[in-house]
Amino acid sequence: MQTRGAIIRQAPGKYEVVDLELDRPRQNELLVKMVASGLCHSDDHLATGDLPVGSYPFCGGHEGAGVVVEVGPHTLDWAEGDHVVFSFLAGCGRCRWCATGMQNLCDRGASVLVGSRPDDPSSYRMSLDGQAVAQNSGISTFSEHTTVHVSSAVKVDKDLPLDKLCLLGCGVGTGWGAAVNSAEVYPGHTVVVMGVGGIGMNAVQGAAHAGAAHVIAVDPVAFKRETALALGATHAVATMEEGTEIARSFTNGQGADSAIVTTGVVTGEQVAQAFAAIRKAGTCVVTGLGNAMQMGLPINLVELVLYQKRIQGSLFGASSPSSGIPWMIDLYTSGKLKLDELVTTTYSLDQVAQGFEDMHSGKNIRGVILFD
Fold this sequence. Notes:
The protein is 26% helix and 26% strand. By secondary structure, it is an alpha/beta fold.
């Protein structure tokens, strides 16, 4: 069938909307009509070249939700009309990582930027003028229709708003889990969140849910600081210097229990600032992305060893999508997790480039593409 999707042809490059050929689903696959897709900074990293991909053209989008319109043959437990939230991390359920409760590290993650089927690196489902088109994370949510493997899909109740649930596929789980799982925030803790956009705002929510006494949001954009205060932050400042001083004022000069780095383009200097802001035996969590080719962190190695500090990477908030997404849905339906408040602006598919421009200018917590 034909569909329309936003692709990049090279990096650096910009997303353009083109007519694509889309294969119908095979066994253990679903054809999904998209309802909504979040505009995540990770897709911009692909366009800038910060994150190199396996091949071009490359159809973007990895945070989305939609309705199943066709189920592949001999595919169990799915039916036409099912509502689905995508996980950008497929879970095979059998590898070492899935078997030990770390589905976010599933071996199928190796194909996220390759763009082929997770179980066959030579097999694609999209094409343009006879040329294979890679799908971001095997799902490509910047497309009116998409064909996905069931290991990337989480079924949800039909009475829930997909235009809000789409955020659970990446941004919300990544930020929330960075605080709750990776930083291991406990009641009474002091937490600094560096960057409160689409990821950091949910780290603020997660830290507040975990019982942190002080949640210090750091962002140069005033309206993001104001939003953070409405979503659980106790303080909001423009610089890490201010945030670090506030954390020390609550901890007898020792520093925050944890600092979570969720800036749009992470640099080694930012990680070093977060590292300097934490106490002895504190945790610096890094979940934002930067240039994949940059190496090295300008941190004090003596401080790392003698203060027993920890630098912790965090992928999808160190949680398993198949269990984490339903958990966050329960938090949302009970009123504890805010999703509606995260959506600043909605766009059509043809406005995808404008959405990323608005993200760069600091206008959005999260921009969302709505499909007809």
